[in-house]
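Format is chain and fold; as here:
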Amino acid sequence: MQQLQKLLDFYINSSIHVGLSVYALVRMTGFLFQITAIDDCALFGFFGTIVGYNFVKYDALARIQKLEMRTELKAIAGLSFLSFLAAGYCFIHLEKHTKIIAFVFLILTLLYTLPFFPNRKNARNWAGVKIYIVALCWVGVTLFLPIVDAGIPFTTLVFLVALQRFLLIFVLILIFEIIDLKVDDPNLKTVPQQIGVRRTKIVGSLLLLGFLLLEFLESPLQYSALFLKLGIAFTVWLFLVFSTEKRSKYYTSFWAESIPILWWGLLLFFS
């Protein structure tokens, strides 16, 4: 049992799970817009997420705190290096315009982590900015990247899906911010820090309502997609309502981050 626990912790700490969530959303984009040649984008999203998230999580520990490299950290560093090579291989096979989009989100990731300006902290520590950068990167990588790579025009439907996905990711991040309320730096000024947990849950609930209402703007309305999104929104809402500072890390890092994977699986099952 202890070995399984260590394996699960490594799976989460090495960002493989969040990488699979990104992979699932890219695949969903391929399904929704009938993109057949999407393997390179999906794998680039998967491996790039592992590299990006591990860089964000462990860069400060390695550069500033000079943390001793434990066995797990060495394994994560090795996995990140291999993922970097795999992401680079996939990047080569992307279209020219897609590479530009990917480079833009790389800059956002670096800006999120590294202090580029004198006497300034990185974007991660800019008050209230973190949640928007993360949600925007998720939408960019999981939607805009495969759309541009396939040469699909930016129609109203694309922007509706983008807004829906942004709202859903935003609410998922709110759940993380509630759980991390005790450990987050007060200077981050996360949503729960500024308006409190109760109001954060109200805001999240309203955003999920907006997520559903946007579905009615699609023409023609697809009831199967509506019911599926209703189920996903209700699942996210339950996670939001029952989120507290006392929840374990698995509540968000495993279960909440499994929602995109669940969404993709249900989409395939009912299609």
Observations:
- Residues 116 and 175 are 29 Å apart (CA to CA).
- The chain has a mean pLDDT of 87.
